[in-house]
Design goal:
Layout (H helix, E strand, L loop, with lengths): L22 H13 L35 H9 L32 E5 L2 E6 L8 H17 L8 E5 L4 E5 L2 E6 L1 H7 L3 H21 L3 H42 L4 E3 L2 E4 L1 H32 L6 H53 L13 H20 L9 H17 L1 H16 L7 E4 L2 E8 L3 E5 L5 E5 H5 L3 E3 L2 H5 L4 E9 L5 H13 L11 E7 L4 E9 L5 H18 L7 H5 L28
Antiparallel strand pairs: 1-2, 3-4, 4-5, 6-7, 8-9, 8-12, 9-10, 10-11, 13-15, 14-15
Helix pairs in contact: 1-7, 1-8, 6-7, 7-8, 8-9, 14-15
Length: 619
């Protein structure tokens, strides 16, 4: 039978007691409350009696093998059932200055625990003939519990009687276990010393067991519960009050528009979206803090009573171990975190340097080949590639890099980009090409296939055009790149030139062409946004079978007003032709019109105008 004590006054102890001071529950509770920012309450909650921490050892404790004098005694000691006890097991709290206790789970290598009131006293590693180590541990647990529950047995009744070759530990007149010479060979200690150490631990366990069930201890525990409940209520009220104040402040800032999230000139989130995000964060933090506080409060209350002490101490120990593991992981991650910080700093300055270089290239007086409209997209592309390279370098320093989960997520994202983003990549590349080919700018009047309109937006993936009928047409950049793009505004914007507007009319051969030219030019000059210098001109673009095609060309510096200019120009052509006695019609109609009234409006005809009579001749 092996006994493991948590701390020993001897330089080496083969026995390691797993008990710990009950005051450690208070210490864990107050440490957790301090993490939450609650009130710090001083004081300790110590059990009277001899502290187990006096016998804690620093090295891994061996187990102690107890055997009996002979086979007959073995059957009496190790197989006889122990009387039932009302003791309720509980988890062992952390030993002061020692290692945390085990989970009270046995195995063939480490042995099986002998437990009293939830505390591991020692472990049984070797069985006897016909009795396994696990069965021996259960039998000894029952014996010790029965002895402790027997009020007639005092702490001094736990004693050891030493012979020449072995020592026997008694509880009153009952044998608990025997220490044989074989144990000396295993642990390198004489059997009287091993038995004396075991007696000390069992005596202290008996004192603690009975003290935990006294009226005084129960009253003290009730006071602790009341105090902890008041602390919890005050803390939660303060938490909800603080969250309410923060929410009101956020709402005020939202109404004033201050919460809009921007990075320099880039608008990331509006005031409403930022307010919603902050409110959600506050609610999540509040919920997490409340759950954490309850997780501390419930096990602390449970640990105040022997019946539920095991559950409470186990929960407190779990959170303490997780916080400790979290702190250790953070400390271990500090070198990688430092590398990430250095990499972020280098990336920032590389981006700033690239911006300065690109902005300097955009000065046309020094570098005429790099156009100013290239500056902003080039800066964004440079930032994208620099940040992408930084992420690749930072990958090995990220938490969880190389883990199966990290690799699985990487494969999923890679497959998603490969299979589902072919069109997106094509549009993005087309958008970059359109930027550097300078096909059009925002505000230009363009024609893409049969769509004519003003460029409203030009992003990496699509181009949006608003037509004269106020229709917004979204065209993928890949389609734009594969189509013929006509830009009506480029010549006016870049070279200070003028856009030529052309319109064609057909007139009969009976009209003098010089008169037609003069009338059309006068009509063009009377049209708004038509330039007089350079002057409009007329070209005869066709001598058809029945008429002549006259094409009027006029210059304008307002290409975006082209639909209105054409409308006004056509109105003026009608007015000026009517004033010049020029009929805009087909000669075939004129030849068949014999006797019909002129199509020219009456206000343009002479006052003495008379419609010609029909000339009908008989052949």
């Amino acid at each position: 039978m092996g006994l493991n004590h948590a701390k020993s006054r001897y330089p080496f102890s083969p026995l390691a007691f797993r008990g710990a001071l009950p005051r450690q529950r208070w210490r864990l509770f107050w440490m957790a409350v301090a993490l939450l920012g609650a009130l710090l309450i001083g004081g300790t909650h110590a059990m009277p009696g001899k502290a187990h921490g006096v016998l804690a050892q620093t090295s891994a404790p061996p187990t102690y093998v107890a055997q009996t004098q002979n086979a007959q005694t073995t059957a009496t000691e190790e197989t006889a059932p122990a009387p039932e006890t009302t003791a309720s097991p509980s988890a062992t709290p952390l030993a002061q200055g020692g290692a945390p206790p085990s989970r009270l789970v046995g195995n063939a290598i480490d042995g099986f625990p002998v437990v009293l009131d939830g505390r591991e006293l020692f472990r049984v590693r070797v069985g006897l003939e016909g009795v396994s180590a696990e069965e021996r541990a259960a039998i000894l647990t029952q014996r010790i519990q029965a002895a402790v529950a027997d009020s007639s047995i005092a702490p001094d009744d736990i004693r050891a009687e030493t012979g020449e070759t072995q020592s026997v530990v008694f509880a009153g007149d009952s044998v608990l276990f025997t220490v044989r010479p074989e144990d000396e060979a295993v642990y390198g200690r004489p059997h009287p010393e091993l038995a004396a150490m075991a007696v000390d631990w069992i005596q202290q366990a008996l004192i603690d067991y009975r003290e935990a069930r006294t009226l005084r201890r129960t009253a003290t525990n009730l006071v602790a519960i009341v105090v902890s409940t008041l602390i919890l209520v005050i803390f939660l009220r303060g938490l909800f009050f603080l969250c309410s104040k923060l929410s009101s402040r956020i709402q005020t800032q939202r109404e004033s528009g201050i919460l809009a999230l921007r990075i320099r000139s880039i608008h990331l989130l509006g005031a409403g979206a930022t307010s919603y995000l902050l409110q959600s964060i506050i609610q999540l933090v509040r919920m997490g803090v409340v759950l954490f506080a309850l997780y501390l409060y419930v096990p602390f209350v449970l640990s105040q009573f022997p019946a539920t002490e095991a559950i409470g101490d186990s929960l407190l120990r779990d959170i303490a171990e997780r916080l400790s593991a979290l702190a250790q992981g953070f400390v271990a991650y500090l070198p990688n975190l430092m590398m990430l910080g250095i990499l972020a700093l280098i990336t920032y300055y590389v981006i700033e340097f690239a911006k300065q270089v690109i902005v300097e290239l955009g000065r046309q007086d020094v570098y005429p080949w790099f156009y100013p409209e290239w500056v902003q997209p080039t800066v964004r592309l440079a930032m994208f590639f620099i940040v992408a390279i930084a992420f690749v370098i930072a990958g090995p320093f990220l938490p969880g890099f190389g883990s199966p989960a990290f690799q699985g997520v990487s494969l999923f994202i890679g497959a998603l980009l490969t299979l589902g983003s072919s069109s997106a990549v094509a549009n993005a590349l087309a958008g970059i090409i359109l930027i550097y080919t300078r096909a059009f700018r925002i505000g230009d009047l363009i024609r893409i296939d049969s769509i004519i309109g003003e460029v409203q937006d030009k992003s990496l993936f699509v181009t949006r055009v608003i037509t004269p009928r106020k229709e917004t047409v979204t065209i993928p950049n890949a389609s734009v790149l594969n189509s013929n793009v006509t830009n009506f505004s480029a010549i006016c914007r870049e070279a200070g030139g003028y856009l030529v507007l052309q319109t064609t009319i057909t007139l009969g051969y009976d009209l003098p062409w010089r008169k037609v030219h003069e009338v059309l030019i006068e009509a063009a000059l009377a049209t708004p946004n038509i330039q007089s210098n350079p002057a409009p001109f007329v070209l005869q673009t066709g001598l058809n079978d029945f008429n002549v095609s006259y094409t009027l060309s006029a210059y304008t510096a307002a290409p975006n007003q082209m639909p209105l200019i054409y409308s006004a120009l056509h109105q003026n052509i009608q007015d000026y032709c009517n004033a010049a006695d020029i009929e805009i019609l087909s000669p075939g109609y004129t030849a068949l019109r014999d006797g019909n009234h002129s199509t020219i409006p009456a206000n343009y005809l002479p006052e003495d105008y008379i419609a010609p009579s029909f000339g009908v001749k008989q052949s």
